[in-house]
Design a protein that fits this description.
Elements lengths: L4 H4 L23 H5 L3 H7 L4 H15 L2 E5 L5 H12 L3 H8 L2 H4 L1 E10 L7 E9 L4 E3 L5 E3 L15 E5 L12 H26 L3 E5 L6 H17 L9 E5 L6 H21 L12 H37 L7 E5 L2 H17 L6 H8 L9
Amino acid sequence: MKRDKSLTSELFRNIGNGHFGNMLGLMPDPDRIMQRFGNASDVLRKLKDDPHVWSCIQSRKSGSLSLEHIILPESASDFVTDEIRRILNNIDLRRLESDVLDAPLFGRQFLEIIWRNGSKNKPMLVPDQIVAKPQEWFAFDQSGKLKYKRSGMNEARDIPPMKLISVLYEPTYHNPYGSSLLSKCFWPVRFKNGGIRFWVNFTEKYGMPILLGQYSRGASNEESAKLAEELANMSEDAVIVAPSDIKIEMREAVRSTSVEMYHELITYCNAEISKALLSQTLTTEIGTGSYAASQTHYKIRHEVIAADARLIESAINELIRHIVDLNFGKGKYPKFKLIINEADNADRAERDVKIAQSGCVKFTKDYWMRTYGFREGDLAE
C-alpha cells in the first residue's frame, strides 16, 4: 500500500514572531515571565532566595529524594544488569535526582553527560560526571529539535547524541519548553516583598512612641532646630538635655488595621506560592482544618511525589539506555525504579502469593523478576 506523504509529515509549525530567537531559527519560550525579562532564567533562580519558596522546594524535593530504588533486570541479562548496578553505585544519584527535580521549577532541566574510559580490565565508556547546565543555553528550533545556543553565538549548534539528558515538565505543542512552577510564583513573591517593605516602614514609623517637644512661642529657629535634633538623637540614646521651660511628652502611636492588611497580604501570597509548588498548603502553612481536609492534602502530596519520581525514573533510565547502547549494543535494558511505598509492595506481594496458591492463576518467572526485581537464578523453576 502506497502511503500518502501528507499523513507522515507535519502540516505546519508556528515559531512565533518578533523574537530574537527567530533570527537563529529558534522557537521562543512562550512563558510570559520569560518574555518580560531578558535573562528570565536568572530572575527565576533569584526567587529561590525567598524563604517560603525555598521551604516549599525543599519539601517537594525531599519527598522523592527519600525514596529507595531498585534496578529491575526486565529482559536484560544478569551481566548487563550487574554492570549497570555497579556503574550507578559510582554516581552521586541523590545529586542527580535533585538536579532532575529542578525541571518542574524551570519547566526544563538539561544534564550533560561527560564520559570517560573505564579500567583496563573493563574497557567501557562510563559516565564520569553528569552536570546540570543552565536552561538558557538550549532552545528548540522550528522543527522541534533541541539546539545549543550560548549568548553571542552566531548560530545554534546541534547536540551530539548520548551527550544530553533533557528533562521536560509538562511540555505541550504550544510550549515545548515545559511549564515553570517558579514562573507562577513570580508575582506572589514580588507582591509579598512589596508588602514586607511597606510593613517594615510602617513598623519603623508607628511602632515606637512619638516624642513631642514643645517650646515657647518666642524661641528662635536655631533653638527649635536644636530641639528637633536632640529628639531625633533621643530615639536611639533615650537621653535629652533641655531648658526647664521646654515641655517634652511621649505619646503612643495610634495603630490601625494596616498591620492586619500587610499580614493578610503576605499570608495570601505564601499560600499561592505553596499551591503553585506543592499543589496544597497544609504541609507548609500552620492552620486549622478538618481531618478529611488534611488527608486530602497529604494524598495530593503523595501524588506529587509519584509524579516527580516518574521524572527521575525517566531521566535515569535514559542514562541506562545510553550506557547499554555504548557498551553492550542496542537491545534489552535494565530498569531503574523508585519504591514509592513499601506498604504497597507488601500488599501486592501478599495478594500475589494468595493468587498463586489458589491455583487459579500461574504467574510466570518474568512477572516475578519484573515486579520484584529478582535476577536470573534467584527463582526456582
